[in-house]
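User: Predict the structure for this protein chain, please.
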Amino acid sequence: MLTTLKNVWFRDPKESPLYINDVAVRIRAGMLLIIPLFMGLTLFNVAYTSKWVVDGNTASDTYETNWDGEIIYAVEASKRTYEYSTQTIVLFYALFEMLAGMFRFSARLSPTILLASLLAKNSPPVWKPLLPKRFAWSIGASLISICLVFFNPDTFAQWVNFLSASPLLPTTENYMPTNTGTTLVWVCLGFMWLEAVLGFCVGCKLHSLLVWVGLLKEECAACNNLDWQKIAEKKHKKTP
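Assistant: Here is the predicted structure, written as structure tokens:
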């Protein structure tokens, strides 16, 4: 346990390039699934539940019926307003988690990385290079940043207008497409589910594609996962 707390999910924090335990990565992805699920429930509540808050204690019979013969009641109702401070805090935490996993010094600050590393300590490690994962998490951080703007369009617009010294964005309406939040939540949920359940990292595959076209360089994962101790033991057994 002390070794796990010291190295977290790194094979050796001092080596270069860095390698991390993919078993812990998948456990962590399963933990973080709760964030897109929470955001999905928020968007479902906004899109499909009533936009009105009705006080049933004030309902009174108007002694009238509609075309279907149903009694019409008069009630006090107010328009529901949505406040996303909790969702914003959750998204900022998710952004921190994406960024924390990218570097050796910040990984120790992540509760999910520490917990996932402890849960994976009794399983055979699967060492994979950090670079593709870092690329994948940068995609996640970008998607989360867009979600933050979607839930706080007025705040972001005020920052942009202040920095530009001109009203580039409106502050009284959401200038982003209405389906932005729903689309991004499904994308994040799908990416995390693939990582946690199937061990399929979409960001890593995109990184491999960029390596294939020559835009990025990748270390040989197979070469760096050789178990030299087992190889030496096999040679020793073969020696008469």
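Strands lie at 19-21, 52-65, 71-79, 127-129.
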